[in-house]
Design brief:
Glyco_trans_2-like; nine-stranded mixed sheet; alpha/beta; Spore Coat Polysaccharide Biosynthesis Protein SpsA, Chain A; hexosyltransferase activity; about 15% strand; globular; Glycosyltransferase 2-like domain-containing protein
Amino acid sequence: MEEIPALDSNKKQIQGLQLSVIVPAYNVSEYLKKCVKSLLNQDLSEYEYEIIIINDGSTDDTEKVALELSRKYSQVHVYTKKNEGLSLTRNYGIERAVGRYIMFIDADDYVLENCYGHICSEMDTNHLDILALNYNYVDDYGKGCRNPYFRRMAKNKSAVLSGRDYILTNFFAPMVWANVYRKDWLISNDLYMLPIGHEDEEFTPRAIYLSRRIKFIPLAFYQYVQHENSYMARYRESNFFDMIKAMESLNKFKKSIHISSDKEIKDFFDNRIGKMCLMIFKRSIREEYPIQKKLLDAMQGAGLLPLRIKPSSFYSRFFNWNPILFARYYSLLKKRRCRI
């Protein structure tokens, strides 16, 4: 599919924009207008920020909706490209962004009104590489849902920290859209996303660690919509192996930064990688995918075994001792709980 740039080529000539909001869009025609309307209902002028909608080869009316919005609002720019997936579409947006700061939003979510000014002020005043935000889970009707990160995130004090100190709090959301990033810092550190699923789980710890100045504020700006048919409800088989690839990359990053003398950071990465591997292994059993042997082979090939979780748990010790026996035990435990 031929790339289609923004309708008004003069739009992208604007320099000195504060913020670029990147919106990857694939078959989201029914949600896109609500998402973009929330991005327009903000306290920056149309000359201070841009909304970059990237149609990732949609087969519905996503492109049509996006172009209609671009005709109506000067800060909305639209690109259409062949379908490549979320990671490469986000990278595509980074390369075309003009703003000093970058945010991401998924096209089926939305944000609170009149928050951009505060966000940009925090970035400017504190000379931040990353500003971390809180967020809400909502259903299709806007009703709040349980957010497993909200209270954990709120434990972060609103102080400027180094990436090392921040990551060791272990109270951060891995989703790319939960943070605001300084663009020139992203580029100078070659911070792009892997072309796999679960790229957030690899990208976010890497980005946080490399940041020199990061701050959390409790503003629940982002509204994450859990649709009834949400992708998060059930993994596809490929998702399990994508997570292993993400953890393999994170493990390589850990080795590349030469942290042998920093035991706390080494333990952080080992724990995060080990817990994610154990999580997907257990989830494959709960969701009745008969792929445990394949997962173990993939983990072994990626150099992720044995799991290096500290302090170790009963599950992690059992898994390291005999993962096949652990799989049988966990399957029986799941079935027993279902009968109760």
